[in-house]
Amino acid sequence: MSDRLLPIKPLSVEAFAPFGQVITTDGAHHYPINAGMTERYHDLARVELGGVHPRPLISIFRGQPYPLPLDLRMVERHPLGSQAFYPLADTEWLVIVAEDKAGLPVRIRAFRPARGQGVNIAMNTWHGVLTPLGSPADFLVVDRGGEGNNLEEHVFDRPWRIVG
Ligand SMILES: NC(=O)N[C@@H](O)C(=O)O
Ligand code: NI
Known about the structure:
53% strand; mainly beta; ureidoglycolate hydrolase activity; Ureidoglycolate lyase; RmlC_Cupin_sf; binds (2S)-(carbamoylamino)(hydroxy)ethanoic acid; UAH_cupin; Jelly Rolls; 5-stranded antiparallel sheet; EC 4.3.2.3
């Protein structure tokens, strides 16, 4: 039983700003295209592609749900690129991120996105892996491909318990 508890907060643009961007149409710059038949919500997040011969990847992650309370044992980061997740259906899920201090994750946060929200996790930002809740869910993922190692993991000596 972990003695370190982590509350879940609602995801907001402001709270997530140190970790990347919230992908949402709320407040986004948008304009009509295709003779007015389509509205473009433009340039919602900053895709970062670093390292050697980088290229953007578009994938679908079919995530299995995690139970709450959840014992978080590991966070990871991608030193060579950002990673965006957008749910393809109305899904309960968590976004777990942390600040970095001397190469270690600190001040961990757990956010619960609202319907219509996704995230773009900035390059080299500590985060938990994709964490659906309640039922399996598909997410569109945009991240970085190319040469080099783009994954660093940190295993906590004591897990953090994320409570509902
Ligand atoms: N490893 C991988 O592709 N997925 C993780 O990066 C994740 O953030 O879920
Ligand atoms: Ni990741």
